[in-house]
Design goal:
By secondary structure, this protein is an alpha+beta fold. The chain contains seven helices and 18 strands. The strands form four sheets. Strands 1, 2, 3, 4, 5, 6, 7, 15 and 17 form a nine-stranded mixed beta sheet that branches. Strands 13-9-10-18 form a four-stranded antiparallel beta sheet.
Length: about 350
């Protein structure tokens, strides 16, 4: 079994006898005076950025340092970004790439802001990577907390590069050869047995208004870091070439490595917090434990590229024939691929 290497450009914190950690390690990602301080909060994933006020006017070296931190730590968190609104949230997002709207769910601002609201108890309480049912799913996601509950409502992230790296070699070889079909048309009632009738109707009429099916490699090569990452999560329907029982068994084995506590970090939200994650190297899970308290967050996603497997094969859209034009902005993948619609 290969042990995942620690995140790059970070000095590890020493651990004293008895398991007491020393002061958190702070990385020196950039020597530029505008670079934020980066404090690791997990051994394999997660860091807090300090000393930066997000917005569309950040200088280039600061943006480069933020991007480097996200690539190194997979998800980074910033506190006290209360000044951000829909416009400045989007303006900052544009510094990381081209914003892209959700392919089926209308935005809350007529542009790119996706609502992540509890809706009287509803949560994305399944491990998933955002929008993998289209070929060029988002590269980055930027999530901003507006209203948080008095308890609960945390979010967990998992490092899918570390999960791949720790697989036993025979399982890595098998995973490298697999392809999986992802879809937004899954059994929502089975996945969410306590969902209300209105939530079921919302899923049927809005989330699956266009039914997507995309075949991805189970292992993709990250276009910026070169790491191999697992492409799994709740949008996976089956493995190509396998029957349902064998698909479920193999997916379960691989997914269990993603969900290992050592590969995860948990964030307790406060209003004004921002999380930025590499959607190509993570999964996340919204914990459904805040009862009916209001939880309002806003997400902007950055256009991604079509994944390429270890064998050089790209992801393929199976249905519909092309990704429909969104209500606002570009089709996913239009800013990163030479092939229209991908």
């Amino acid at each position: 079994m290969t042990t995942p290497a620690p995140a790059p450009a970070v000095t590890s914190a020493a651990t004293a006898a008895g398991g007491t950690s020393a002061a958190p390690a702070v990385s020196d990602i950039s020597a530029a005076p505008t670079a934020p301080a980066v404090e690791r909060i997990g051994g394999r994933i997660g860091a807090v950025l300090r000393g930066v006020r997000l917005g569309g006017d950040l200088p280039g070296p600061t943006v480069d340092a933020i991007r480097a931190a996200v690539l190194a730590h997979k998800v980074v968190f910033l506190r006290d970004q209360h000044h951000l609104d829909a416009d400045s949230h989007e303006a900052f997002a544009r510094l990381l790439g081209t914003p892209v709207a959700h392919p089926t769910v209308p935005s809350v601002d007529g542009r790119y802001a996706f609502a992540v609201d509890n809706d009287h108890g509803g949560r994305a309480n399944q491990w998933h990577t955002d929008v993998t049912f289209v070929p060029a799913y988002p590269a980055f996601s930027i999530l901003r907390a507006e209203v948080v509950p008095p308890y609960g409502g945390n979010t967990l992230w998992a490092n899918t590069a570390a999960a791949y790296a720790e697989l036993p070699e025979p399982l890595r070889v098998l995973a490298d050869s697999l392809r999986a079909v992802h879809t937004n048309d899954y059994d929502y009632a089975a996945a969410r047995p306590h969902a209300s009738a209105r939530e079921l109707q919302q899923h049927r009429e809005v989330f699956t208004s266009t039914r997507f099916r995309t075949e991805h490699p189970v292992v993709r090569v990250h276009p910026e870091t070169g790491e191999r990452t697992l492409v799994l999560g709740s949008f996976v329907q089956r493995l190509a070439g396998f029957n349902g029982r064998d698909s479920r068994a193999l997916i379960g084995v691989l997914q269990s490595h993603v969900e290992r506590p050592e590969n995860t970090v948990r964030w307790q939200w406060r209003a004004g917090d921002v999380a930025i994650w590499d959607n190509r190297a993570t999964q996340h899970y919204g914990v459904d434990d805040s009862d009916d308290h209001e939880r309002t967050l806003r997400r902007v996603t950055i256009d991604g590229d079509v994944p390429v497997g270890v064998d050089g094969r790209r992801s393929v859209l199976l249905a519909p024939e092309s990704v429909p034009e969104p209500e606002h902005g570009i089709v996913s993948g239009a800013s990163t691929s030479r092939r229209p619609g991908l």
